[in-house]
Design brief:
- The chain contains 6 helices and 8 strands.
- It is elongated, with a radius of gyration of 29 Å.
- Helix content is about 45%, strand content about 20%.
- By secondary structure, the chain is of the alpha+beta class.
- It has 2 domains: about 50 residues; about 150 residues, Glutaredoxin.
Amino acid sequence: MKNRPSKNRKYIIDILIIIVILVMAAIIYYRVDQMIDDRKSSEDEIEAVSKNTPEAIISPTSDEQAPTQPSVVPAFGFNLSNLDGENVALSDHLGKAVMVNFWATWCPPCRNEMPIIQDFAAAHPDGLVVLAINAGEESLEVENFVNSHNLDAINFLMDPTNSVSDLYRVPGLPTSLFIDAEGLLQNVHIGELNEAYLAEYLAGIGVK
């Protein structure tokens, strides 16, 4: 009779252990199921973004590779102010080849390629429009850079909130877009341009 309480305690302890194991199993099952659902949701979101993103934006050309031809899509419209405070829209230049360059004065590759872009723009004043969109700097800083480098053939636009960069999902600076006279985005280059690449990209939008 003295052993009965001991046996009862052991029985209760066994029951409690089983309950704890069941509760832990239920928690683990819930967490695993939640992780699977989260992963499926993330995959669905990525797929949705990919379907709605032009291939030209998500398939950049490497600096070490020859330019490639992405799928042609209409360029996204935008409206920004130039250094004189005048509004400039991409649609203002429909009918001409347009190069859009995302840049900043603090970006060494941007500074390196700017004289090359200036030379091409100056050589094709009637057939090429270059819109250089600055990444959120003060207009005075941009104006000083432009004047000190004699970049008079390029149209400099201010994007204080990086709204156009976000629109095009620009991954880094510099990034250049090449848009033909019909407003179609023919190519995208991420990174510093050299003379040969720039000539090839511009030829693709009718500037030779």
